[in-house]
Design a protein that fits this description.
Helix content is 8%, strand content 49%. It is mainly beta. The N terminus is likely disordered.
């Protein structure tokens, strides 16, 4: 990690920490009523570069009887990134608005002028570092322009105890094109190679609109939702889309997530792991939706993978794109010390981490092989991808977490390293 990034990491965490203290200082009782936390969206990750902007996080704890769990949460977030990305994100979550139900609404608009397109099927797609965002020879071979609109609505209702049913709708709208950036030449890209070879179809190369339905069950007995030290959080659901917008794609998929938080020493040391599986059951999914990781609740704004800062940390974003995925995240969460400051409760911790993932059901692999093109097909069989690293966390009132994580892949074919400075634990 360069000295510039180290300085940025330290400065961002200290600045954000100070502002969080100031934002809550006027509250006499942190466990009741509304808490407004304005926050500078000054962060960094290796997928998007330096991110600048601002966000406002609002928590309503009601009468305080359920603290640290909230009655309502509202989040407004705007960020602009130096690698040509921008997003606007609005989020509302309430376990109390509708009696015995949990309602979650989210709307995100994202522009990314250098969005990673790494090909399909993991190790079957070769990666040449010299072609990736190289200004000297003006190549951005693994990039496309991607504009995305995502509007989500989900509702959960009780079945018995921590077991719930869940249902929802998601509207996706993608606009895809070759890159248009003054620092790089257009046309010389892996995306264009795929289009010319017919692997990416004419009807999907510019994107499309899809209405996705979701239904399943969840089980959640965590002690604290956003910063748990014990419990299980399980989700399993079917989701899919009918071709209402005539993009020649109907699909049905299955998603399963098992998260377990195992206390080792009181609430000061926890072993947390997440096992996930996502697969196509029927139909055909367009290439630009295959990297989306399905979820009921948005822990992070970004939902794409595998790879990147939100799935298999440290590995290049979208390095493993296929019809089906399996992955796991494993980490120790150690709380080193805690204290009260300006009426707010804080704790500081670290989380050594180890991640793994792979494509378990390939996507158009035979068409890749048929091209005999060495930049499209490497000849390698897909195997498990591994990464390891560590993070630091500053938690405020059990709900607001400042996070910095760095991880490095085991294989050079998966990139140099991944650095992420953002909010919340990964899971």
């Amino acid at each position: 990690m360069t000295g510039k990034i180290k300085y940025l990491l330290t400065t961002t965490l200290l600045f954000s920490f100070g502002l969080s203290c100031f934002a809550g200082a006027h509250k006499r009782d942190k466990t009741k009523g509304f808490h407004f936390v304005p926050f500078p969206a000054l962060s960094y990750n290796s997928d998007q570069g330096l991110l600048l902007g601002g966000k406002l996080d609002v928590y309503n704890y009601g009468d305080g009887s359920n603290y640290p769990n909230y009655h309502d949460r509202i989040l407004a977030d705007f960020q602009w990134a130096t690698k040509g990305a921008m997003h606007v994100h609005l989020y509302y979550d309430s376990p109390k608005l509708i009696k015995n139900h949990r309602l979650t609404l989210a709307c995100t608009y994202k522009i990314h002028n250098l969005y990673p397109f790494m090909g399909f099927n993991g190790k079957a797609s070769p990666y040449f570092h010299s072609l990736d965002l190289n200004q000297e020879n003006r190549t951005a071979f693994y990039s496309i322009k991607s504009n995305m609109l995502r509007c989500m609505a989900t509702i959960q209702g009780k079945i018995h105890g921590p077991l719930k049913w869940a249902a929802g709708l998601t509207l996706w709208k993608y606009d895809i094109a070759d890159i248009k950036n003054k620092n790089y030449d257009s046309g010389n890209s892996l995306f264009n190679e795929y289009v010319q070879a017919g692997i990416i179809r004419p009807e999907e190369k510019s994107g499309g609109t899809h209405l996705e339905f979701k239904a399943g069950i969840t089980y959640d007995n965590r002690d604290f939702e956003l910063n748990p030290s014990r419990g299980i959080w399980f989700e399993s659901y079917l989701y899919g889309s009918k071709d209402f917008f005539r993009h020649h794609n109907d699909y049905l998929k299955l998603a399963v997530h098992f998260r377990h938080y195992v206390p080792i020493f009181q609430d000061r040391l926890t072993f947390a792991y997440h096992l996930a599986y996502q697969d196509l059951l029927a139909g055909s999914c367009p290439f630009y939706l295959n990297q989306e990781i399905a979820t009921i609740l948005l822990r992070q704004i970004e939902t794409d993978g595998l790879g990147g800062v939100n799935t298999v940390r440290g590995i290049l974003l979208n390095r493993m794109v296929g019809n089906g995925y399996a992955w796991g995240n494993f980490e120790f969460r150690a709380k080193l010390f805690e204290f009260n400051l300006l009426g707010q409760h804080f704790d500081f911790g670290i989380n050594p981490l180890f991640d793994m993932g792979m494509v378990v059901r390939p996507y158009r692999l035979e068409e890749m092989k048929a091209t005999r093109n060495p930049v499209i097909y490497s000849g390698d069989k897909e195997k498990m991808h591994f990464s390891a690293g560590c993070g630091i966390k500053i938690n405020m009132n059990y709900n607001l977490t400042l996070s910095a994580e760095i991880a490095r892949p085991i294989s050079r074919q998966d990139g140099p390293y991944g650095l992420n400075m953002s909010m919340n634990y990964l899971f």
